[in-house]
């Protein structure tokens, strides 16, 4: 079986499992399975599932939308084509045309007030149509997406843009081939290939490296129209590794930058700091005796997101950019080193304004620790099952599939028993459950990527303050929260035909859990997550109360203030949370056996920290020994030459580390030594320096 067929089989299996676990349709399960892949690729910030199908005669259908047109100026609509058939034929051009006509028909109908008034106000179709009508004046572009588990015919290589009511319409197809390519790529995205001749012309460059140096870098002055054109094509994808934009979840237009563009464009180069960028490859040609840059692969603007967004905004508003130039510092980073080096470049480039949790990408030690715990910690066997299993934390995209694909058939069967696909979870899954439990359902309602940015900011600061908090105990609690979250998703879906009217499922889930956690805390208690971990399930009284809270919160979300936003937008507001928390609900089932006091919860956290300090000490001891005395000697010399400040205790530990053969460091000393090493690396020390200093 070829790799493409294996992926298609795996995708169908995933969708079936999701459908069964959550009690949703196969189409919604398919959407849930691939939406993170699409948003993670950078093509679109957020996707919401909103299914509406008109009569067969009307040909109207829409399955979701993405982003807020008031911010992005773009309306994104999507339609799902889910065959769930290994022998399904390829998607032809005729079918493609038919599929894309359906959301356009919905769009046309949504702008008809009479049609909207005929819809049931609590239906997802009405909510989406109402949102479109209210924000139509903000829409400057329309994007249509087709999500399909079939293959697109090889004879279709694209689709020209069209117009709808004087607005450009672009088309995007996410077929099984594209999904596989993205999920199996190391960065989880398609390459950005910038052909500068298509964006205003090649750019003269000044090499900023020695001919025999392993590091390749260039300086350039980018014409404003060129930068604006590149940004117009790729937008947020250019900022994926920009830590400040990552934490803010968007690139902002700066008023001061805009003022310079408008009033003194010829001085922009002098007044503005420019951009710091990286690329995995660059093509340099010599034209008229001058080196020029003609092509860039996987360009990333790691500092200068506001500059780029402001230049682009000026282009959109019709400003003259012909006199505007932007300085660029470009570093070329090999693809296999990009995950480690690019966030470092971004962090240092942004260091003039401290950013908590700046380097919160997949190589952040929080993710590394969660991955390490997930690979060794067995969960208790479920009732009626003799086999223990693990929860697999996918720190980087594709780890689970890569692990399976490297095994023999017999090993794969054993792996699947120990790591059920239903127990696979990602960074965004963890963020949704944790932020819900922290009482921030309005952030979870913003979408997976934006919620994760807030999660990153919070956890990153906590890691810096006290990393031992993130222990095995914390991991077990996190998994228990995830079990509660996923079970609540199923509870809401099962209430279809009862109190659940469709739509807003994700919002209902996070509000129901956050409200319950809040109400229990008001009693000075907490839900006993150890009970959930030990049984890997929820007791019936808790299921019943979650159903009760789901009904109450669903009704709350469907009742936004008069004249205010629609339910989806209402769910994203702090006022929605504050009102929800004031709602009085009496438990209709007894939860006393599932509650613990605050003191006991704090004691468990403290014990977890103590255990983690022991584990960290042992790991630090091993790391110190692996680094070796020669490297520690070089670090000590570098510290002295660089002027980095150490306490007398730290200096003594470094000196002891240079004589490991005589006596190994204690666990406590090893933790301090590794902290010095990390601090030195943050200030510019590299292992490469060791060899240079030794010579």
UniProtKB/TrEMBL annotation:
<dbReference type="Pfam" id="PF22879">
    <property type="entry name" value="AIPR_N"/>
</dbReference>
<protein>
    <submittedName>
        <fullName>AIPR family protein</fullName>
    </submittedName>
</protein>
<dbReference type="InterPro" id="IPR018891">
    <property type="entry name" value="AIPR_C"/>
</dbReference>
<feature type="domain" description="Abortive phage infection protein C-terminal">
    <location>
        <begin position="239"/>
        <end position="560"/>
    </location>
</feature>
<feature type="domain" description="Abortive infection phage resistance protein N-terminal">
    <location>
        <begin position="30"/>
        <end position="181"/>
    </location>
</feature>
<dbReference type="InterPro" id="IPR055101">
    <property type="entry name" value="AIPR_N"/>
</dbReference>
<dbReference type="Pfam" id="PF10592">
    <property type="entry name" value="AIPR"/>
</dbReference>
